[in-house]
Specification:
Helix content is 30%, strand content 24%. It has helices at residues 18-28, 40-46, 63-70, 82-95, 130-137, 155-160, 171-180; strands spanning 53-57, 74-78, 100-102, 114-120, 139-150, 184-193, 206-214. This is Methyltransferase domain-containing protein. Residues 55-143 form the Methyltransferase domain.
């Protein structure tokens, strides 16, 4: 999959329950949804990093995880949709890459830490803020957090899909959390033009890119 869009337009992707998993399976339908290309900001931000362990949160059909694995990363990729993970598994086999695919949301990913945690267009419920702690705790000392949001969300369009953007962790929330937390260095927090293929998400033209390093 290429997560060239998406979950930020739709509800609850990172919080697994049987109902939500079924909803995501239904959304993925019978045909491949995404382009199969890695997200461009992933390529830009990660190409120069030394490979290590990586966690791809909300991996969808797997293009980002496969791209990382092809470059020597040891990748764990999580998603709530069994249908998406099935496509990801087949794509990895076709590419000759090894990825650990797990059908869980971020809360179920366990206590392991990773040299890279990447999250593209997440739908992480803000709640009491614990999900931000869970995300940051997944990054190993010396590791990198890369999170990309859509810079401009059409709230009316999102609410038509049953999604209230104000209920979810925003780019600004993460920047504020990292700024207040000792041991973190925010290396990039900026808006950047994006190139989106035709299909879902093509109406988004700007990304909010956050890259931070844990000391």
């Amino acid at each position: 999959m290429s997560k060239h869009e998406h979950r930020a337009d739709l509800p609850g992707h990172q919080h697994q329950s049987p109902v939500e998993a079924d909803e995501w399976d239904e959304r993925y339908g019978e045909d491949q949804m995404w382009s199969g290309m890695p997200n461009e900001q992933l390529v830009v931000e990660v190409s120069e990093l030394a490979p290590g362990t990586a966690l791809d949160v909300g991996c969808g059909e797997g293009a980002d995880a496969i791209w990382l694995a092809e470059r020597g990363w040891r990748v764990t990729a999580i998603d709530v949709s069994a249908k998406a993970l099935g496509r990801a598994t087949r794509a990895a086999a076709a590419a000759g890459t090894e990825v650990e695919w797990r059908q869980v949301g971020l809360e179920g990913a366990g206590a392991s830490t990773y040299d890279l945690v990447s999250v593209f267009y997440p739908a992480l419920l803000r709640g009491d803020g614990a999900i931000i702690t869970t995300l940051l705790d997944a990054v190993a000392p010396g590791g990198t957090l890369l999170v990309v949001h859509h810079a401009h969300v059409d709230r009316e369009r999102a609410r038509e899909h049953g999604f209230d953007p104000d209920d979810y962790v925003r780019h600004e929330d993460l920047v504020a959390a990292l700024t207040d937390r000792p041991g973190w260095v925010v290396e990039i927090a900026e808006q950047r033009a994006r190139t989106a293929p035709d299909g879902p998400g093509a109406h988004h033209h700007t990304d909010s890119v956050l890259r931070a390093r844990r000391a």
